[in-house]
Design goal:
Four copies of one chain form a homotetramer. Chain A is an alpha/beta fold and 324 residues long. The first copy, chain A, is built from ten helices and 15 strands. In chain A, the strands form three sheets. A seven-stranded mixed β-sheet of chain A has the order 12-11-7-10-9-8-15, covered by helices on one side. Strand 12 of chain C pairs antiparallel with strand 13 of chain D. The complex binds magnesium ion (4 copies). Chains A, B, C, D: It comes from Fuscibacter oryzae.
């Protein structure tokens, strides 16, 4: 009656997923956990079985479904193992480090004939994005023609290298733009500010819509994501991300968080509840392996456009029927 | 490991509590339900035992904790039954219809020697109120001196009679003002617009703070609750209740809901999760039976002030040590 | 063709009026100025005649109309002198220090049989208040039933004594509330926070409407005036007083000024342009001597209510036909 | 002592300039007017001399300075006539219809050796843009690296042809972006939505900054201009263009105007006051003939980029010392 979930990886995101499963998710029990740091796993066990080997966790009878939150480089292998075991998994983005690896997973799932993988593009569950999509789908703004995205981090992590602004951050906009517009990008143009930050990336979709995204890794003032969808009859956009406003010291306003966790706390919670329900019902939801593949393949091609001034044609390959 | 919950009353609020327990609450299972309309109960059972008699549900071995969401007039009797059975209960407000009844429940709980009852003053779990209280408690606005409350309903229900603006609506402000300020009201003054709606109610607290509340039962434009807490160094207030903004037809803005359910959906969810955790841990949280009593006794005295122009002194009685 | 204006008093407000006349007002020429500090007057002359005696300025052939911005205690005498000379005057509020003096001016103007005096209640020209009144008069919010006013100063001036929160600050709300609602106040109730600041003043009008005003002399965080007018079908309120918003240091928002001058700069400018046009056309506009008298007489009675908890009945006397 | 101004062209903008000079501008007198429709001119004369021939007005002894608000095609010839007469002029944008004509005017003014022409790029006087520039110049947002512009018209006028979105609308962003950033654009890339509307134009400046502009001629919902300037330490943007907010019919928000006149009413007024003062003082201000030329030459080259997908290099020519 309650879903037995195993959690792999107990870093920042893994620990948050663990907390969400235990404190804010209906219908799930964490029966197994696994982390490279066995001591950390032990501290967080609370009665769950502790595995040293993630593949053993995936294979275990105690586990009906898996959350993959281990380092990015391990995602592909673990996702394939879940498919091999026939177990549903919620896999943190990115699905895989390369297009080739992503494609292999898509092919494995297609061969299996049913969707078991959901990729953790949590913005699809963010109440603001959901309301924006609802407004567009309900015809409230007319046909969508242009999407403005702003994605600002206070500071890039130390381990960030150049293309990661695209492969790590901009992938969120690739996914959410496809989801909001119901369309795939077909070209990309990149403009770069001095020092390579911020980037201004313009995409055209197969419906002719325009998607403009500012990716600013070192915006200093805080973590801030914004989007405005422009239609032929009106627009819909995120409100400022705040539930209270203060007056103090000649100033009116609200604060920003330093990173994405508080901003998308609701999205992560709703995603987890929805995933558990979707596993229980057998109806796949959220971002699919194909969506994860597309985010990766588009990002890879945008990286190639970083060098030149030209408009780059994007090629995605044919979407398998499984993801129709 | 999971809390066995029985739900009494499956009207608007009861059905929402049932949904929250099943879809958005960790660590709880609905094992029993009860409603005056047995057919409705049957439709919502999903495997839970259906009771015709709420007292039988409360007494059942299948039930560890109870949610009371039946008509207001039944709250007192069912709360007393839960105390008699030694079972924790989340009881929708009001605790009881009269001061005398409320006091009887408080006395029963005091005799028992431990807090089993939580009253459903869900605003204490609303993210905006929580942030306001945090700001005040953290000293961000200096000492709070004045609280502005606005409580607007689109239209009073048909069954509303005069004093219900106070006993049904204003009770929320009595409770949330006490909680925000950490103080009890000691006087009340009522001003009335033509036709008796809106009311403007001014209270003074035992710390000398002022609490101003507009209660407008027929504000027409929508359901809207607002609050601003004024301190000696600044203020904190609710932001507009919206996550998206639209442009359309020469207009910019957002919509209001028609009633309180969408506005306080998060508050109800968080309250339920928190209640289940608090029952599991044995540490009472939320509004206590004493808080429920105070809301009722203050409301009763404010009703008496409706007739005259005078400032009325409020008398609450002594707070038992159990609620210190 | 251009109006010859004399300006009396060159302090903060007088100097601003002088600047407005010279730099932002059509159809006026400053031909004479006067200040207790003759040196200051000399520095600001720019070709205007400098008078040591304000009565001589008023009587001078060079002066067709007068701006009175000298210390409050002098207003009454100078206003009477303008009436005696038959010259229009824009007199800074308050019209006079006492009800008796105010009444004497009203009687003098009534005896003269035409309106020559305009009192500088500049909020009547503030674009936000004007839009609020327009919305109400156009029926956009239904019948107005309640007005919420907030009047916050960063810090009371040194020379402020207790009742000046009423006689110096709250007079603005007395005037603007009468103007917005087209009604006179008939009762007042005062609630006082510890230390006498802030005040919460509730008035009822002769139409049964309620007016709630917070007057906070030491709000610390900045100068901030807010108002919301509540009608039976909707509300209209001031937007936050800012034309730009900034993001910086984990913060989003805008700044407040330290005093009223920047907040009401547009109002002062529009008032001055309107006054010059109204003098040229002979059609009196803005707040009349009667309005100035009412602000003073109501303030005086509210001060008397400061001591007790009771609702005080306000008495204004009969409005002369001249001001119908 | 007061500037004698002649106004040429009494259409929408010309009539507004006339009104501003008469009702809201200090130090100016309208002594002469001229319009192709002599009857309209007669109706608006109010004592000013009515000229049938604009060149006669420019040459007249009654006229010290000229406002040119006649049809666009006449601007260049009239501007040259003002230079020939040595009379200062405020010329509505565009300065001229082509780059060649614009350059001829610049050369004539350079030959004269002093700046007599101001082009009516009124946004430089809009309080929001002024505050944005002040914030940037004061270092409040760090070095500016990116400017987001949004320029939406409710509906394109009937007489609009394709490139006019650039030559008539986008010219405003060319000018204001140069002014805000203190930099000239060096490349432009254009993306086009289906049907050619909206356009998304990306420019790079000679400082490496990026300028992104949405130009939407048929945004339907209203006239709306927005800008956000992004710096290395923060951002500054326009607040929503409203002084009041309303609640009504389940909706909160404010209205947009149908065209630019109400949005930029303050800008036009301030521009006019500033122009009159600058003529009186002999110190040129506002957008110069060179600025007018640059807007035209950049627009012409952006039009050429409309056809292709390529990034276009912009060439402006050398700035004469007169405009250093
Ligand atoms: Mg993620
Ligand atoms: Mg409730
Ligand atoms: Mg004043
Ligand atoms: Mg213009």
């Amino acid at each position: 009656m309650t879903l037995a979930v195993g959690v792999i990886g107990l870093g920042v995101m893994g620990a948050e997923h663990l907390r969400l499963l235990r404190e804010e998710t209906a219908g799930a029990t964490v029966t197994a956990i696994c982390d490279a740091d066995g001591e950390r796993a032990g501290r967080l066990a609370q009665g769950a079985a502790v595995f040293a080997d993630p593949l053993a966790l995936i294979a275990s009878d105690r586990v009906q479904a898996v959350v993959i939150a281990s380092p990015d480089a391990t995602h592909a292998g673990l996702a394939l193992a879940c498919l091999a075991q026939g177990k549903p998994a919620l896999c943190e983005k990115p699905l895989a480090a390369t297009t080739a690896e992503s494609l292999r997973i898509v092919e494995a799932e297609v061969a299996l004939g049913r969707r078991l993988l959901q990729i953790g593009y949590m913005r699809r569950f963010d109440p603001a994005y959901v309301e924006m999509k609802h407004a567009a789908d309900a015809g409230m703004i007319g046909d969508p023609v242009l999407l403005h995205n702003v994605h600002r981090n206070a500071a890039a992590p130390d381990w960030f290298t150049g293309p990661m602004a695209v492969t790590n951050s901009f992938v969120h906009e690739i996914d959410i733009s496809r989801w909001l517009l119901g369309a795939d990008p077909v070209t990309a143009t990149v403009h770069t500010a001095p020092g390579g930050d911020p980037l201004l990336i313009t995409m055209e979709t197969d419906k002719g819509q325009l998607v403009s995204t500012e990716v600013f890794m070192n915006a200093r003032y805080g973590y801030h994501v914004h989007a405005q969808l422009v239609g032929r009859a009106g627009t819909v956009q995120m409100a400022q991300p705040a539930v209270t406003l203060t007056n103090g010291s000649l100033h009116h306003g609200h604060t920003y968080p330093e990173n994405w966790v508080p901003r998308f706390r609701d999205a992560y919670r709703i995603q987890m509840n929805d995933w558990v329900r979707s596993v229980a019902s057998g109806k796949a939801a959220g971002a699919s392996a194909w969506d994860g593949y597309v985010a990766t393949v588009v990002a890879e091609q945008v990286v190639s456009a970083l060098q030149g001034a030209a408009r780059v044609n994007l090629s995605l390959g044919a979407r398998p029927d499984l993801y129709a």
